[in-house]
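On to our target:
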Amino acid sequence: MYVDAQDLATRYAAVWNEPDAKVRRAAVEELWAGDGVHVLHPPQEIREEAARLGFTATTLEARGHDAIEARTARAHEEFVAPGEYVFRAAEGSAVRLNRVVKFAWEMVPAGGGDAVGGGLEMVILDDDGRISEDYQFPG
């Protein structure tokens, strides 16, 4: 199945901005496979705290539609719902190589302006063009 890389990146960013829980859930189900996984490379302070507690794992994981929807909902509540920020795919950043799509994303002030955060996303698509593996590297 053909998937346009920049369109995928734009739809991906839109999920994190979606205020309606039902619409967000439908978008999650459209983008991710049922057993898809979202893997986050956590910020340095989380990795340091985990190491202090004796944990060696350096990733956080949400698997399946329920967990991914909870992850997107939580990010929406923290960053978008207060009206301060929105997420967007960096224009022209998406590239596809076979089943892998790489793109940059940004967190920008809701009223416009320069990015205040962002990162790199690498996703692997299944045969239906849905995300089976999603690797997020905030920067």
The longest helix spans residues 64-80.
